[in-house]
Each structure stands twice: as structure tokens, then as C-alpha cells.
Amino acid sequence: MTKKLTPEQIAGYERDGYICPVEAFSTEQAREWRSQLESFERAEGQKMTRGHNFKPHLLFPWVDEIVHSPEVLDAVEDLIGPDIRLFHLTVWPKDAHSGAYVSWHQDATYFALDPICHVTVWVALTDAPVEAGCMEVVPGSHKLGQLRHAEMQDPENLLSRGQALAVDVDRTKTAFMPVKAGQFSLHHTHLVHNSRPNRSDDRRIGLGISYIPTHARCTAANRVTAMLVRGQDKYGHFDEERRPEANAGPEERDFHARAVATFRDMNASLNKKST
Fold it and tell me: Deepest in the core among 107, 122, 178, 203, taking most CB within 10 A?
């Protein structure tokens, strides 16, 4: 028995590498979460974009609410089992009529996870139609395994390291993954995908949440943190992440800074290893 997804959706995930859309939260709830994010941006005088968009679940109770919600975790459990850690989370904002985009890539490229079994949940805080730059995917490309990527310097690319696919993949039959505020999509870590600039009149905001089964481990030399969000962890592959109690309070900011630094150090060690 599945908890949320239908057998047809699970079969589609195995065949195509993604499911979209999945119903979860009300439009009003998504609007409230967006309001809290943008209130923080105004208070900080800085938008949560490239370089400042990692691991907000360690800063804000409202993000913690999303990542622990049964609306999300029931679907994740249907794909990877009942013992679940949140490995990473990124905010993906694109201002209206901006040039910001995400290059063609695979999520797994700089995660160093073994086995390759993590699933990304993309929760929409705003409507993300095609014209707003929703995700575009190559159906079935997750079956190609890990592909070679290169890094490029482009400030408009929202990926922190500008990673871009460096091999040819047939993109003549791509599919778009539009979602409405409160909905989410799921995709496999090896699915080849991108997103184009936002040509709509409203900002496009989503949370990309990477979940893994607790038996998965990070093979990098640097030990990193991850949050247990459901079930039990009998393996101890990660240092535990604390749940936030206040919105960006001093303790939340301190732990967040250390966790992000640890994650960046892990990424840097992988880069050195590959050069």
C-alpha cells in the first residue's frame, strides 16, 4: 500500500524520472510562506538568490514545517522508504522578466551520495508556468547514469558552481513541469533538467528539497550534516541538524553558517579530487 502516490505515478517515476504535479498545500498557505520569505529578504536587504539560498530549513520554522509535512513525506516514502533524511535544500527564485536561469544538469553531480537514490521535491511557493521558467526535463534521462559536467562562470546561472552538462544528450523531446503555488513535483537525482528565464509578470519561487534514505552515505572525505525527518537512522552517516525554533535567531544563524560551510568544504574537496 502506498501512502500518497498512485501505482501509475510510481511507474511513471521509474520510467520517466519524474512526477508532476502533486497536490499538497493550499494557495493561501503557499502565499503565506512566500510572504515570510520576502519579509526576511526586505529585513536583510538581500534576496535569497545564488550564494544565499542554501539550507533555509535550518533558519526558519516555516521551512521546517514544509520539509516535515506529511503531504510531502508521504510521497517521498512511497519512492525511497520510511527512513528519510533531508540532505540539502535550495531556494530557487527568479524575478519577473529577469535573465536568471538554471543550466542543463543532474542534481547528483556534486552530492557524492552512494547509492544514487535521492529524490528532489520541488515545492512551488508561487505559480510556475512555462513562461515563468518552470523545470524542463529530458524524460527517461535518469537511466543514463551520472554524466560529465563542466563549470562555467555566468552570474545569471542560479547553480552555485555554474555546473552544466558537458556531453550531448538528445533534447529534441523535452517535457515541461509547470506547477501551481502549493503543488510540488518529484524528480530523480540523475534526471537531466534545466529551467529558462522568467518571462512572466510575477516572481517565481520554489524550494528544491533533496531527500535520501538513511542508508545512503556521502562518500566525500568531509563529513556533512543532514536532518532526520522521518523514521529511524541505524547507520549514522551524517551529523545531525538542529530544527529551528525562531526565525533566523542567533542560534539558528550560527548553526546554519557552520552547516553551509561544511557542505561547501565537501563540494570543494570533490572538485579537487576531480582535477
Answer: 122
